[in-house]
Amino acid sequence: MQPIRILFSSISGNTRSFVKKLTDYAHEEHIINSAAPLIEGFEISDLTNFTDETDPFFVCVPTYLSGGNGIDNGVKELMTNTLGEYITYHNNAQLVQGIIGSGNRNFNEQYILTARRYAHATKTAVVADYELRGTNQDVERIYNILITLTK
Predict the structure, then answer these.
(1) Strand 96-103 vs strand 126-131: parallel, antiparallel, or unpaired?
(2) Which of 4, 12, 70, 129 would give a disulfide with 110, using CB separation of 3.0 to 4.6 Å?
């Protein structure tokens, strides 16, 4: 079984930390049961060379917004623009299996708004979400969701 691939962007380190916990958890599960899929995380940044993806992947994206109320006015995406451009590069968007969003629930309607916008742009769904760096329960829950979606 091929590893589950996750492309992500991390500015403050929260998303990077979560993807690391997710890949570590998948590795532990794989040791217990060799049929349990591994997870590979690929960070997309301003230094990334754009390439044509050939295998399906999930996207894990934090929420960084400026202005507006997240619903109907003035919101502007910040910081994850390179990830968005990478996903829409050539036919990459066709390989997106779903979006995992992170954010801070204190931001109410803007919670995981970036993930919802990416899902809309790629015609996929937000398959999971977590707050800030995520908990161990989030890691286990999201791992199980990804397994279910890749079968």
Answers:
(1) parallel
(2) 70
Locate 31 and state its tokens: 């040791």
Residue with the bigger pLDDT between 139 and 72: it is 139
The alpha carbon torsion through 103, 108, 109, 115 (nearest 10 deg) reads 10
Q: What is the CA radius of gyration of the chain?
A: 15
Q: Are 115 and 84 in contact (CB under 8 A)?
A: no
Domain 4-150 indexed as CATH 3.40.50.360:
yes
Cα–Cα distance list, 22 to 3, 58, 99, 107, 137 (Å): 12, 13, 15, 25, 11
**Structural domain spans, the chain:** 4-150
**DSSP secondary structure, 118-134, as one string:** HHHHHT--EEEEEETT-
Q: Would the pTM count as exceeding 0.85?
A: yes
Question: Hunting for tokens 């791992």 — which residue is that?
Answer: 143
